[in-house]
Design goal:
Helices cover about 40% and strands about 15% of the residues. It is an alpha/beta fold. The chain has a single domain, classed as LmbE-like (Rossmann fold). Strand 4, helix 4 and strand 5 form a beta-alpha-beta unit. The radius of gyration is 17 Å and the shape is globular. The model has no long low-confidence stretch (mean pLDDT about 95).
Amino acid sequence: MNVLAIGAHPDDIEILCGGTLALYAEQGHKIFMAVATNGNVGTPDLSREEIARVRHEEQKRSCAVIGAELIWMNFDDEWLFNDRPTRTVFLDAIRRANPQVMFIHSANDYLSDHRVAGQVAEDCRIPCSVPLVETRLPHCEKIPDVFYMDNAAGIDFQPEVWVDVTGVIEKKRRMLACHQSQDVWMRKAYDASIGELMERLSRMRGLAINAQHAEAFRKLRTYPASASERLPRPSVG
């Protein structure tokens, strides 16, 4: 099975569903991580060009931890819009992965890039499988099941399904640790490390299912309905 996660920025996917992707990878599924923007404003001291190069390399190292294929869309950070050119790039990202399962941002997350990335991805769910919606790549074989990822800090997100990621939490930590430049930025902008924020959220979500660490999701509630059975089970041993 092909699994695609679409995040607005480098590190978004790791924080919100990195453990779930690690479980899928352990179970032999093909993982794609698509990042919409190049993160070229997330720095206190580098130029836009320098931080974009740094964050691209960090994202590649993170993908390597679980053997994921990176799809780098390279839009400017904080300037993502739901228009035809953006949708075309998203369609090709989805078609490249040809996923059976897709994870996207929730519509009420805290940054406009998150909300726009989630909306564009959702809007592409049906057209990605339509042959006459023409882009560079051939259409997907099937309409993918879609799950919304948690919001940053879990704010105003009502989970429906949880994945126990306790058994792969070290892999999730290693993926996130690749994003050193974002840790510097988070400490500067929000007075908290990126690792601390992830740990608090995963432990909070774990409480709901009596697990040490968990990730939370909601199903996309439009036709055709997505199946929770597509989500991975915890690793054993």
